[in-house]
Amino acid sequence: MSECKPAKTPLEINFKIEKPTKVDEEAMAKYPYQRLIGALIYLAVTTRPDIAFAVNHMSQFNTNYNMQHWGAAKRILRYLKGTRDYGLLYTKINKRLYGVVDADWGANLIDRRSYSGYAFVLAGASVSWEARKQRTVALSSTEAEYMAMTEATKEAMYLLGILKDLGISYEKVTLFNDSQSVQELIQGLGYSSRTKHIDVRHHFVTECYHTGKIALTYMPTEDMPTDVLTKSLSSVKHCKCSTTLGMTNSLTTSRGGVGATK
After folding, report:
1. Which of 37, 49, 131, 241 could lock 225 by a disulfide, CB 3.0 to 4.6 Å apart?
2. What ranges do the domains of the chain cover?
């Protein structure tokens, strides 16, 4: 891969791929797929939120893959080659910790589970992020967004505890999302027969809202940076989202953002 052509994004836009119908161990033995995904997970978790969704998505094929999956995984390496000088840049600013939350309803072709994505930004860059397939099937986009908000709220409580131990106290964390129906549901304004099936454990976020631990703010979908954590995007949108999460070229910041390589 040292001589490969760089890719502008980790996955092709609107990327879709399914598991093979049968497990072909002989064919799988030809590709070190699991070792590659394992190495990429380390990067996605520690320093590269811009590949978190791609790596999480491809990891679900660890037990059943073929040449097509191997090619898609290598594309992530091609993207990394073009952005190897990129990383998270933290700067001293006065902005408080905040979170951005999103979900992509029923996006997985295999089991129709949704994807959740959240990121928390402090000092100009992400300090915590997650891209994950939800554990249960959401029956509506509101439920998918609500489940994503719950996971983000749990992380917000954890980060508030860490900051308090460091001598930095925040009364609340503002969470941005692009679903007004979810905000109404959390505030107690949107409850109906169509939403009462949502599992009780997800109402943890409602309690945190009413006790003042989190604040909710609407962010338009076109401005939501966590799209990069829930789906494959065009190079322009991928660049915009990654930059908002704090990704920058450590050597030359004027190259146009992540994915600017032609």
Report:
1. 241
2. 98-223
